[in-house]
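Prompt: Have a read of the protein record below and flag anything odd:
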Amino acid sequence: MRGGLELNWEQILRVKNDENIPFFLVGNKGDLDEKRKVTLNEAQGRAQSWGVPYVETSAKTRDNVDKVFFDLMREIRSRKMEDNKMSNGKNKDKSKRKKLKCTIL
């Protein structure tokens, strides 16, 4: 996403072919505010329109890097538990169970 938010939600869903994937919009280089290409309002607006959380990170200072990782893991775990409740033990064969996928952009 050079210089802006060129990707759109429909493109991502088309590539992943699954609407039920854990998804976060993450902005990096949060320590370089004076060089930002996407405004905070634009990023937050895009995340809101997609219905996903937005988090700004900095690999240099490690701000929110762990938060994004752990939030994503919690979301995967939550969806897995929800899937287990929905199947209510009906699908004991693990080979037939749909695997959860996560995407980090």
